Fold:
Amino acid sequence: MSATITNIKLKNNEIPIIFEKSEKLPIFNLQLVFKNSGYLTDGNNSGITSIASKILNEGTKKDGATKFAQKLENKAISIHASNGFETFVIEVSCLESEYESALKFLAELLKNPNLSEDTLLKIKTMQISKIKQKEDDFDSVAGKNLSKIMWKNTPLENGTNGDVKSVENIKLKDVENHLAKTLNLDNLLIAVGGKIEIEKFKNDITQIVKNFKSIGETKTDRFNVSKKIGEKRLQKKTEQAYIYFGSDFNLTHNANDTYKAKVASFILGGSGFGSRLMEEIRVKNGLAYSAYGYTSLNVTHSSFNGYLQTKLENEAKAKDLVIKTIQNFVINGATKEELEGAKKFLSGSEPLRTETFSQKLSLALNLFYKGLPQDYPKKELEMISNLSLEELNNFISSHKEILNLSFSIVTK
Structure:
């Protein structure tokens, strides 16, 4: 059974609700999702969206973090805010029996978040500490430097946590204003599931979200990978080389050919052992323990990315082999055996994506967010099953843009 799509009407808005019913599990799960409200909105205050989400995890100003957390813990209720690049999410989960209490605590939190100088100082200190710790995480460093090459002059070149200087300069008033703009009724969509009655929930949630301001739906353009490819090599005290690479991938998240991209990505670098990159780099040449490559299709941006680690002395050879392997894949395509293997794995693994109730609700939300029908996974498997080798290889050869690889390397 797929999710039900309904809505509530409020302030001249129809706020979408994605509802997944559970007859067996006595649970309640709610996600308030604000579109176009992730760290793409940071602007000059890089890291501020992350700080705003962490503020909501510090309880109410009345109770403080510890006392509010104790209230939730006493009833086994979880309320957690987080953000990605495109979205800002507040999630609530509990047993069905604590449904009323969970919504009560959510309303208290939204009405009186713990916006104080002490709380902000605590969060900023923790965030700066995390940024500094990642300076010794060479996977993180290589990935961050690659983003600065690929996504130059876009919000994607900055990570969700920002940098030390930007975080230090964030003031309490900045966070208050940012949070007020983020909790925008016009950007809201709701995902809810569990053993609940949807009509009662619609009445209950209306009493909470009616307090959000309606300030107009935020629109954002798609961000494109920089046309100027580059390479950044950073020397560190390391025993191995970290090689990250990426390129443009000219396909939107809801294009007709996304299923072909899924198969091609799986064959090239997403399947672990058996993938083309792993076979060439590890199995045949012993240049790395693992090597991955994958396409990423988001609402605001798309790209091809990959990474590996290798011995310092094998850095140049491994990099050249990455380039040659991807060139060969684009020019000559996949083999019949690779296509059949991908079909078998993808058709067999699809049911695992919806084993749990949480997975079902998350998938339903993701489909709605991307503008896809709720039965799309079934249709996608049918299209993959009927995909011919000629169709796949024509698709692969049409995406020569992935050959324009940029590299970020951390080495000694």
